[in-house]
Structure formats: structure tokens, C-alpha cells
Write a structure and sequence with these properties.
Blueprint: H1 2-31, H2 35-62, H3 65-77, H4 93-96, H5 102-112, H6 114-121, H7 123-131, H8 145-167, H9 170-196, H10 199-208, H11 217-245, H12 253-267, H13 275-295, H14 305-329, H15 337-362, H16 370-380, H17 393-416, H18 423-438, H19 444-458, E1 465-472, E2 475-482, E3 489-494, E4 497-503, H20 524-532, E5 541-545, E6 561-566, H21 569-577, E7 588-589, E8 593-594, H22 597-601, E9 609-614, H23 629-638, E10 639-648, H24 657-666, E11 671-677, E12 689-695, H25 702-705, E13 718-720
Parallel strand pairs: 5-6, 5-9, 6-7, 6-8, 9-10
Antiparallel strand pairs: 1-2, 2-3, 3-4, 10-12, 11-12, 11-13
Length: 750
């Protein structure tokens, strides 16, 4: 009997974690690849999950067993009307023309996905409540079944990128999910039949438990807080790792998997990792992490990526496990089970809303502040170790304040002594404060406030000379001055990815700033502009997707018309105000077109452009909807017959060359050549880059196939390439990010 309930909960959770990436990918080609799309989906799913938990609570509290079964079977059968899951383009037409399509997306999600997601989301609390009346030897404490639910979520999380996405297109995924839902419905029918057999046991339990469990408002608030912190930490650590540490593809899977594991461990019948041990380890991990925050850009710059990932993920795992263990320890008896899950779900929803919607506005000038803030809250919620001294709130607030003063004083002293950047300076500023903070470890409030004091005081020791910091739904942008061989330069960062830089000195014969990084004159894109574009008559129409600092505008000639497409309004503001490339442009610049490039390009007339430059693939979260068969077909329609498409495919972890080569091959007439620049000299402003160029006619590419000046004729700076035999064709229905990961040195082109 317990196996039926555990299996049904496992299947429901498995379906929950399969439908979320499926729906997100279905939306991308129609509403663009903006992070706001994923944020909207996440908020929707968390809100429906909360609704499912509320439904389970009301159902079991106010209806008799037979009524519960009939109502729930109706709820399970009703989604058959909308299966398989599809999101037709016409339903999303209004979103395509809106600057803020959140409400359109929510309406479509509610109509197309809401019913099946609501049905499966109510399974965990409802079936656990039903099981409590079964008379089973573990019925009095059915929370162990929650581990089966989270195990299903964990397996689905891993299965989607590894098994489902590589083998099934979105249409087939929708049908497979419908088949899984039908199987889930069968198991719900079986569990419903078992529920009707529990009536006699239910009467016995009610008689033995005549006095209901009392749940105070303070206890409910604590449940919300203990669920809020891990949820916020999950999103915070994911954003930090994927932008500021290592934009590794699918890295977001690791924090989410750890998050689910903490639920499994916390609610299991056997405690594999005792909470007392976790409570002792967490302060150590947090102090190490605080030191990383305080000195990460200087003394700890040389740490391997793996070590930094381990530090952040280790602290996150311990904090989430301790919070969930406290939830499990404080769980009420079975008669309050559904209410407990409701308040816990509410805390998770609030954490998602805070990080996804509120924090980008609240911390627009300070970066990912919600991440260290959640760490501080996790420390404040720690249970006091056994045998700790009685509380003294006066000292709990005054000692952290004194710690902040001491830290600021040490920072000022290090500046006065002109200590050089490095480990010695970091130790002088933060070594003693960290030791003092550790002495607070037995007092959770004092320790949490001590960590907050360290982080706030650390703001007085800026790690780089920032001119600007802006944050929105698209991420954190920083403009900083840094020294180089040629003088000081201005750099635009998105996380730790450079999106362009400019010398603060006049650098060419006309007194203009020359482009640097991926766009320098001797690089591949410089060759395209100087060998191909410069040889054509004046009056060329050029479109560039991805603005960055506007470096490409340097190559515009008088009479040429240039149009930049940019999804992030903050990038547009920064390029126009902080960098000089757009102001010094010799061509005619059209107003910057804001929005997703694929959607905005559809509004342009076919055959409009002589050259189209795609430069939107330089980070982990590559917009895959810009690299599909349908997308390439749209690009080519916007080009003139003798036009070229140049694509910047540089990536630290992905090899996009075979993907684009396969797309070009499928178009029959276009040819593709590859250019690369492996000269990396950051002091002189050169960065290695890879570019691909597609054209309809072989003759159009001849200027690029010429060897570089001063080089031999067999110089491979540009060459024709073909995809490997096993390279998949990406479409709006099928993409596979795993196949694009560069597992090592790859050059498998004939």
C-alpha cells in the first residue's frame, strides 16, 4: 500500500520537473529569449504549486472521504481537455508586440498548462494526508513519503537534459508527458480506492486524537522563514555562479539538485547527516564564503574555479539542509500536515518572488545583494547549540556593531600604510575580524549580525574602480576603469564576461578610439569589415544583433546605414553615455532597436541588409532560439542576395561551430567559412575570438578567403568547413545543449 502512495508521489514530482523546461522552451521562439520569460514561468509554477497545496488543505479539511475522492478524480481528469501541452504561436501574438508581456504569458500559461500542473502539484500533501488514515505502521508520521516526491523531482531534473532533450523534440515531449500523465491518473485512481477503504481507521484516529494540534501564528511565520531562505539562496547562488564565477552550461542543475537532496535528507526517517553536525559546519563555511566576498577580486583571484564552486555550493547545501531539517523537526502531527505544506510552499514562493521580481529593482545599484543577505538570514535562523549561554540581546547587537567599526578601521589603516594588493593586505584587513566573528558562533543572532557587519564594512574596500553598476532582469552590468600597456581602459562587464572595452586615449590617425577585444582590426571581424565591407560601394545597410559597447560602429563608413538590435535597455544606455564608439561613428546610425532580435528582425523588410552581424552567443545562457533552422532562414531572408551573415560564436564552454555549420548545410545554397583569432593579449586589447560567415554565393566570400597580408597562401585564417556526420540539426522543436559542450579540444571539421 505504501508503495502505491510513494510511487504516485514520485510520478507526480517527476512530471512537475519535466513540464517546466518543456514549457519554457516552447515559449522562446515566440516571445524571445529574455530572462524575463524564464522568470515569469518560474513565478507561475510556484504560484500554481501554492494553489495546489491550498487545494489539498481545503479538500481534506472540509469534505468527507467520498467527496474528497470524487472531487480529486474530477480535477485529475479535467486536464485531458488541454493535453498534449502546446503553445500555439497565435496565442502569443500579443506578447510579441508588448514591451512587458508578463500578463499575456501568464494568461497563456494558465489556459494551456495550469490545469495539469495544478493537478500534479496537489499530489504530495493530499496523498500524505490520505495515508495518515491508512492504519499503516508509519501512518502517524507520513512525512517520509515526501522523500519519494523529491526523489522524483531530482531524477526528472537530471533526466531532462541528459535523456529527454537529446532524443525528443518539443512536440514529442508534449505527447510523452501526456502519456506519463495518463499513467499518473491510473495510480491516482488506485490510491483513491485505497482512501475509501480507510474510513474505519479514520474514525479510530479521530476518536484517539480528539484534541487537535495547536499551531500558533509565530510557528507559521517560522515555517515561512525556514522555507523562504533556502528558496532565495537557491536562486541567489545560481545567479552568482553562472555570472560571476563560471558561465558553465547546465550549471544551474547542480544547486537545484542539492536543494532537492536537502529535502530528501531532512524528511527521511533516518538522519544520514545529523543537524547538530550541520549546525557546527555551517558557520565555518559561511566565514570562508564571507572572506571570498570580501577579497575575491584581489587576494583570491587565483583560486581555481572548482574551489570557488565548492565553497559556494558547500555553504548553500549546509544552509538549505539545516533550514529544511528545522522544518522537518518542527513538523506538526498528521492532522495539520496539509496546512504545514501550505505555509512551507508559501515561503518558497515568496523566496522566488523576492529574488526574481523584487531584488532586481530593490538592488538595482548594488548587484546580487540578495545572495549574501540570504546567507545572513540563514545564520540568524540557526538553532542555538545545546549548552549555549542565555540570550543577551544588548550584546547581540552591540558586539557586531563594534566588529564593523574595527573592520572599517583596519581597512583605512591598510590604505594609509599603502599595503600592496594581495594576500597580506587581505589578511591585515579581514583576518582579525573573521576570527572575532567566529567567537560569536554559539549565539545565532550575534553571529548572523556579525557576518552582516563584515560584509557591510567590506564595502569600504572596493575591489575595482567602478564607474557604473546597473542591474535589471537581464543581469548585472559593470563599467570599470583598469590599467593597460596603452594607458587606462574602460571595460564593460556582464558578470565576469567582458562585453567590450575602450581605450581612454585617442588611438587611431583620425583621433578616434579603435575597437579592442573581439573586434580589433587584425581579428576576424576586423577582417570582415576591412576586406569585405570596405570593398563595397558606399551606402551599405548593416544590422548588428548585440550592441555591447558599440565597438562595431568604428567600421561604419560615411553613407553606410547601421542598425543595432539590443535586448537589454541598460546596455543601450551605457553604450551611448559611457563609451565613444557610437558618438564617433562616421556612418548613419538608426535608433537602437530594443527587444529580442529574432522578433524585431521580423519587422524589417526582406532583403534589407548587406551584412547582418549576430553577436549574442558569448555567455552560458546562449539564446538557442537564435541558432535554429527557422532562425537562420529568417536571417537569410533579411539579407540581400549578395549579403553575408557573420556570427560571433566564441564561448568558453560550448563549441557552436558544428551547430551553425549544420544549419548552413541544411539551407543548400549558403556556404560557410570559419575565421579565428588565437592571439590573446589583454594588455594590448586583443582577445581570442571565433567567427563564422554564411553567404548564398561562393563569389561573395572570395575576399575573405584571401590569405592575410604578409602570410603564405595556405594561411588558414579563413576556410570552408562542413559539419560532422553526427551533428544534430537544431530547430525550434529540437535543441540539445549537451551536444554543444566542448568536452575538450575539438576540431572535427573536414
Amino acid at each position: 500500500m505504501a508503495r502505491w502512495f510513494a510511487g504516485t508521489m514520485f510520478g507526480a514530482a517527476f512530471l512537475l520537473f519535466l513540464v517546466q523546461p518543456l514549457v519554457g522552451k516552447l515559449m522562446l521562439p515566440h516571445v524571445g529569449g529574455a530572462p524575463a520569460v524564464w522568470n515569469t514561468c518560474m513565478v507561475f509554477f510556484q504560484a500554481v504549486l501554492l494553489g495546489g497545496y491550498a487545494y489539498a488543505h481545503l479538500l481534506t479539511r472540509f469534505l468527507r472521504p467520498t467527496q474528497q475522492v470524487l472531487v480529486h478524480l474530477f480535477v485529475v481528469v479535467l486536464p485531458a481537455a488541454v493535453l498534449p501541452i502546446v503553445l500555439p504561436a497565435e496565442a502569443l501574438t500579443a506578447a510579441s508586440g508588448s514591451e512587458y508581456p508578463v500578463f499575456v504569458l501568464l494568461r497563456v500559461l494558465a489556459l494551456r498548462v495550469g490545469l495539469p500542473f495544478f493537478a500534479v502539484s496537489s499530489t504530495a500533501p493530499l496523498l500524505q494526508r490520505w495515508f495518515a488514515w491508512s492504519g499503516h505502521r508509519h501512518a502517524a508520521d507520513p512525512y517520509f513519503l515526501y522523500a519519494a516526491s523529491n526523489l522524483g523531482s531530482l531524477i526528472a531534473l537530471i533526466a531532462y537534459p541528459v535523456v529527454v532533450e537529446p532524443w525528443l523534440g518539443l512536440t514529442n515531449q508534449g505527447w510523452a508527458w501526456a502519456g506519463g500523465y495518463a499513467l499518473y491518473g491510473v495510480t491516482v485512481v488506485v490510491c483513491s480506492g485505497l482512501r475509501l477503504r480507510f474510513n474505519a481507521n479514520e474514525q479510530v484516529v479521530k476518536t484517539e486524537s480528539a484534541t487537535p494540534t495547536v499551531v500558533t501564528t509565530r510557528r507559521r511565520i517560522r515555517w515561512i522563514a525556514l522555507a523562504f531562505v533556502p528558496s532565495s539562496l537557491l536562486l541567489g547562488v545560481t545567479a552568482h555562479l553562472s555570472t560571476d564565477i563560471a558561465p558553465i552550461p547546465l550549471l544551474w542543475v547542480v544547486p537545484l539538485a542539492l536543494y532537492l537532496c536537502t529535502f530528501i535528507l531532512a524528511f527521511a526517517r533516518r538522519q544520514w547527516l545529523p543537524p547538530t553536525v550541520v549546525n557546527r559546519l555551517l558557520p565555518i563555511a559561511v566565514l570562508v564564503l564571507a572572506l571570498v566576498f570580501l577579497t575575491g577580486a584581489t587576494a583570491l583571484r587565483g583560486l581555481p574555479v572548482g574551489v570557488l564552486l565548492a565553497m559556494h555550493l558547500g555553504a548553500f547545501f549546509l544552509a538549505a539542509l539545516l533550514a529544511h531539517a528545522e522544518l522537518a523537526r518542527d513538523r506538526p502531527s498528521a492532522d495539520r500536515l496539509t496546512e504545514f505544506y501550505f505555509w512551507m510552499s508559501l515561503g518558497g514562493v515568496l523566496g522566488g518572488i523576492f529574488n526574481g521580481l523584487i531584488a532586481p529593482v530593490l538592488f538595482a545599484r548594488t548587484g546580487l545583494t540578495e545572495y549574501p543577505l540570504a546567507i545572513v538570514l540563514a545564520c540568524l535562523l540557526r538553532p542555538a547549540p545545546a549548552g549555549s549561554s542565555p540570550r543577551s540581546y544588548a550584546w547581540d547587537f552591540s558586539l557586531p556593531t563594534l566588529l564593523a567599526v574595527v573592520t572599517v578601521g583596519l581597512i583605512i589603516l591598510a590604505r594609509r600604510l599603502n599595503l600592496p594588493e594581495g594576500p597580506a593586505r587581505a589578511a591585515a584587513m579581514f583576518g582579525l575580524p573573521c576570527v572575532i566573528a567566529y567567537t560569536f558562533v554559539d549565539r545565532p543572532i550575534r553571529f548572523g549580525l556579525g557576518i552582516a557587519a563584515l560584509l557591510i564594512a567590506g564595502a569600504f574596500a572596493p575591489q575595482q574602480e567602478l564607474r557604473r553598476l546597473e542591474r535589471n532582469f537581464f543581469g548585472v552590468l559593470k563599467v570599470a576603469e583598469t590599467p593597460s600597456e596603452s594607458g587606462r581602459v574602460l571595460v564593460l562587464y556582464h558578470g565576469n564576461t567582458i562585453h567590450g572595452e575602450q581605450s581612454l586615449e585617442r588611438t587611431d590617425d583620425e583621433g578616434r578610439r579603435e575597437p579592442r577585444t573581439y573586434y580589433h582590426r587584425r581579428g576576424p571581424m576586423g577582417a570582415v569589415c576591412q576586406r569585405w565591407l570596405a570593398k563595397r560601394p558606399a551606402g551599405q545597410c548593416v544590422a548588428a544583433v548585440g550592441l555591447g559597447t558599440g565597438s562595431l560602429a568604428y567600421y561604419a563608413r560615411s553613407g553606410d546605414e547601421w542598425t543595432f538590435f539590443e535586448i537589454d535597455p541598460a546596455v543601450a544606455r551605457i553604450a551611448q553615455s559611457d563609451f565613444a564608439f557610437l558618438r564617433e561613428c562616421r556612418g548613419d546610425l538608426r535608433p537602437i532597436v530594443l527587444g529580442d532580435a529574432r522578433l524585431q528582425l521580423r519587422k524589417e523588410r526582406d532583403g534589407s541588409f548587406d551584412m547582418l552581424v549576430l553577436d549574442a552567443f558569448s555567455s552560458d545562457a546562449i539564446p538557442v532560439h537564435l541558432l535554429t533552422r527557422e532562425a537562420l532562414s529568417e536571417y537569410l531572408r533579411k539579407l540581400k542576395p549578395d549579403g553575408v551573415l557573420a556570427m560571433h560564436v566564441s564561448n568558453r564552454y560550448l563549441d557552436l561551430r558544428p551547430i551553425v555549420a549544420r544549419l548552413a548545410q541544411q539551407q543548400e545554397s549558403p556556404l560557410i567559412v570559419r575565421g579565428w583569432d588565437d592571439v590573446e593579449n589583454r594588455e594590448t586589447g586583443k582577445a581570442a575570438s571565433q567567427w563564422l560567415v554564411v553567404a548564398r554565393d561562393d563569389d561573395v566570400l572570395k575576399p575573405l578567403l584571401m590569405h592575410r597580408p604578409g602570410a603564405t597562401s595556405d594561411d588558414p585564417f579563413w576556410r570552408r568547413i562542413r559539419p560532422g556526420q553526427n551533428t544534430p540539426l537544431w530547430t525550434d522543436d529540437f535543441t540539445n545543449i549537451l551536444r554543444a559542450i566542448a568536452w575538450g579540444e575539438r576540431d572535427d571539421f573536414p
